[in-house]
Fold:
Amino acid sequence: MDKVSTLYIEYPKAMKMKSVYFVAGLLLMIVQGSWQNPLQDTEEKSRSFKASQSEPLDESRQLNEVKRHSQGTFTSDYSKYLDTRRAQDFVQWLMSTKRNGQQGQEQRENEKYLDPLSSNGLAKRHAEFERHAEGTYTSDITSYLEGQAAKEFIAWLVNGRGRRDFPEEALAAEKMGRRHADGTFTSDINKILDDMAAKEFLKWLINTKTIVKWLLGFLAVAVIVTAIAVPVALLTNRGSSHSSDTRRTFTLEDYLSDGYNYKRYNLQWISGNEYVHKTVDGSLQIISADNGTVLKTLKNTTIKDAGATTAMFSPDTKFAFLQSGYKKLWRHSYTATYHIYDMTTSTLVTENPLPNDTQYISWSPVGHKLAYVWNNNIYVKEFPRAKSIQITTNGEENTIFNGIPDWVYEEEMFGTHSALWWSPNGNFIAYAEFNDTEVPVIEYSFYSEDTLQYPKTIRIPYPKAGARNPTVKLFIVNTQSLTPLNSTEITVPHKISGEHYLSVVTWVTDERICLQWLTRIQNYSVLTVCDFEKNNGTWLCPEEKQHEQESNTGWIGRFQPSTPYFALDNGSYYKVFSNSDGYKHIHYINDSGLATPITKGKWEVISIEAVTKDFLYYISNENGGKPGGRNLYKVEFGKGQINAKCISCDLDQERCQYYSTSFSQNAQYYLLNCYGPGLPKCALHRSSDDQAIRNLENNTDLNNSLKDIQMPSKKVESINLNGNVFWYQMILPPHFDSSKKYPLLLDVYAGPCSQKVDYAFRINWATYLASTEQIIVASFDGRGSGYQGDKIMHAIYRRLGTYEIEDQIAAARTFSEMGFVDKNRIAIWGWSYGGYVTSMVLGSGSGVFKCGIAVAPVSRWQFYDSIYTERYMGLPVENDNLKYYENSTVMARAENFKQVEYLLIHGTADDNVHFQQAAQISKALVDAEVDFQAMWYTDKDHGIDGQAHKHIYTHMSYFIKQCFSLS
Structure:
């Protein structure tokens, strides 16, 4: 097993201790045989040492009093007990041993001494100390041997005095010893004991009769000091015990209060060297990246006086939108009311105001021209006080969408509430038109206030797998000649026949646009480049500039085709797609369409971040072979062979292994965000030398707050299943003790191209479960997960509900065999796709899991939307993949739920995974006479937010505690 984690193995130290004890025993045996006169007349006690070695340890309670140090190491009172017994017996033996001159007795005494100190005796008992998660040992020998054994030994050298008769200076030194907050122990006793030992040893030498005694006595002292000092040096600074850690744990209330969220630096670039920052009080500042100077401020009082909650500057900073009346619609979409504020006159623009409930609004990339969508139609204002010019007229609610996507495009293709794209200089607008006339409608009740006699009915055009899809068209409008309106449609390339999707729109210049189209099955795409013809005002898309992409093992891209980044010639470009080995890498495509790889290896490029004439930046998971890592790399052009340099890898390895960036418009500067594994931070860098010029956020306040809380630790490791290397992570309780048995909760998503195992910092429900309830929370990325090559990701193509389910069960079995996991208390939970996997796992009858929670689960893939489902499953028809649609339902496994405890949760107003999905699971379980728990959240969507957020996590916590028999 490859171990790549924050837990470090230190086995050599333990081995060194065994060797020290063996040598000490051997030399002291020789010393014993050389002494001619008895040191003390206590023959009766000479037999006690051997007897103590074989006596059973009947103080069983001491075995259970385990302690956890703040650094992650362990201590047990069992260790302390063994230390005390061993040191006491050893001192007693030294004090009582005498030489009677008989060879037989000498041999017997040698054997008594050698056995307990050899690798099979004292060292063997030392090996019984607590083994820590990182492979190190700790015991109270650090304090005891320094403060007890050494003092007893020197007292014996003097005249056999016990500890109670020990000199006052040593007792004073003992009081000086301190156990520190971080678990280490220091004391001035070492210095004092050194002085005392020298004095007392000289006195003893005066009374000895032969030089042999002197030499052997000196050797004995050296060995004993070494035997004591070496283990102490190895074991100090290991951390405090569990019982000595008086800090509180991280509670459920802490998580639900949102008081422990880390801060991000709010930044939006408006030029190559200027950005907008929203301050804590809500004011907007325009800041120079060059020197950090605040160039302009829109005060929060101005925003509030207008009844607004936020604002957005125009690119020339002469005007600002003031937004109010926010109303959420779907995941990304909302409506709001906007007023325009004149920064020059410090007044609101009252001429030709914008309408209420605007669906989308944006400034042009330069100046202060603007476009907005209202009632599904597009409007343009050439300047804030100008009259609005209507661009489209056919917009209709739930039927024709102009400039905004319908539900399925918003959720699955664009990931935004905009379908409108300005050209770089604002001379053209490209927009999509979606026609949902033929799309089936999903309906569900919205209960609203309890005074509403009849609930409302929500209707959404929602294409499910195999159903009719929306049709899409793309138009380009010349904003320089809006009267009369000049709009041109860009037709779909001939190579894309039948039903299709518009996937990516990219402006290259003001007169060149790049479009990417997908077939409905999404395993074939065509990239087209279209140019504006000034002579006749048309757009031409020559076939020779098209670039095709096809997948023979799955689908195109991770979720859709990647965005191209055009070079300075505006003809060639850089793009991420799978190479011949199935790993996603950067390729350079020239004018003739020839693709040349820029990066390669058994790792993946996550995204291209910026391209200039001199360099290219990208994010990848190459560093350390960790799929869950993210680092920034730079390729410099014009230097012969292409070599990538990691910019972030060595900046702060312990704290930062997961980065993201935000580049200014000409890539002169960039914001480098570190998201973990330590506390997040961010800094502003310049591209010329990649040096940090300003730290913008360090989360110092959060760091100080967490110092007073016992926080869990996180480890990331890999395991081998079915010939593949897969990664998992565990959130471990504070003071984790590998000799104990912990309940384990498997936190699962496991959807196509998902990744749960990474190096990002998070404070979430798992933090509470691990910290307060002492539950290990694990996650595992099996077949179907992303960022590890197409072989793993495409393994579940057309087979959802198979391998990803099997792998989660196999991972849980592997975890159950780890000595610290209670195999009788293993649970699983997930949300959305994770809810589906949870349900399928529990319904498998594996016998691994005791209970599970499924939130908003899919239950049958025919119930989910077309773009997502068909990308991975094809069509649910006889001549395609109907068989695997039918074999992947939760309902078919209802009978097996009798073996587990199951909590099913769903929001009644879930527009994404409809309540229908949970209702069908419930129906099947009832029909199978399965006893289960269910919770629904009235009028809540897929996210179950608001007050329901607190309720759901409280309810799930109670369920898990009950399942694990926790008080």
